Amino acid sequence: MIRLDGKVVLVTGGTAAAGFGLATARLARDLGADVAISGRRADRGRKAAADLGPDVLFVPADVTVEGEVQALMAAVVKRFGRLDALVNNAGVIRRFPVMEEDVAGWEDLMAINLRGVFLCCKHALPHLVAARGAIVNISSVLAHRSQQGRSAAYDASKAGVEALTRSIATRYGPDGVRANAVAPGFIRTDLNRDVWGSWSAEQHAAFLEHYPLRRLGTPEDVARAVIFLASDAAQWITGVSLMVDGGRSAA
């Protein structure tokens, strides 16, 4: 059985009630880790941390701002003395094909989804090298398989996340750091409520026909994959992207 006793886990974007991040933070806590979460909204972050338990640390941070990322890492290490696993979960989505996307929207999404991952990795790595720790970046199946090009910036950002993950894995593997990505399929989170929120029962059933397991995933399905890759159970796994999509990519 996987345990995280004595480990310190930081989850960015860990405050949304129906998101991957909070589910991952909850599972890490249940498996014995000391947990820190971050997010831009202090009110939501304080509530999430309180719900998780009195020992969970919330640090408000915008991952696109280098100074705030540096302060985030410093706060985690000051509180817990180390950092063993970084889960880069903070992200946004836009659903525009290339000809309909604008520069401001593109750059805003890239700042959060890609630059934020870079900054968090950059400033976590000294601590992860010291701990011989792990990075798990949240990607998407859309890094591999676009849905008719409807979300160009998002797809490109997640492909960038996976390339960055491989680069870190190869450069810092000799230092004992592992870096992997998890690529979820479609999961009913707040991030994509604009899609599933309007489905009829018939549309939902038709959507499930694309999935060999005949159900949508849950945030907990993603959290279990993340925690596996962050744990010592995955000591010889680095530089990979693990599809967590109910078999959709194989269909």
Walkthrough of the structure:
It is a single chain. The chain has one domain: Rossmann fold. It is 44% helix and 14% strand. The protein has eight helices and seven strands. It has helices at residues 20-30, 42-52, 66-80, 103-131, 152-172, 193-196, 201-208, 219-230, and strands at residues 8-12, 34-39, 57-60, 85-88, 134-138, 178-184, 241-244. The chain has a seven-stranded parallel sheet with strand order 3-2-1-4-5-6-7, with helices on both faces. β4 (85-88), α4 (103-131) and β5 (134-138) form a beta-alpha-beta unit. α3 runs parallel beside α4 and α4 (103-131) packs parallel to α5. The protein is globular, with a radius of gyration of 17 Å. It starts with 7 loop residues before the first strand and ends in a 7-residue tail after the last strand.
CATH superfamily: NAD(P)-binding Rossmann-like Domain
**What fraction, in percent, of the residue positions are helical?**
40-55%
- For the secondary structure, the number of strands is 7
* Domain module count: 1
Biggest sheet record: 7 strands, parallel
Strand-pairing-aware structural class: alpha/beta
Mean pLDDT: 93
Question: Any low-confidence stretches, pLDDT <50, length ≥5?
Answer: none
Number of helices: 8
CATH architecture call:
3-Layer(aba) Sandwich
Strand composition percent: 5-15%
Note the overall shape: globular
> How far apart, in Å, are the first and last alpha carbons?
31 Å
* Strand arrangement, major sheet: 3-2-1-4-5-6-7
Rounded to the nearest angstrom, the radius of gyration is: 17 Å
CATH class identity = Alpha Beta
- Briefly note the CATH topology name: Rossmann fold
Order of helices and strands: EHEHEHEHEHEHHHE
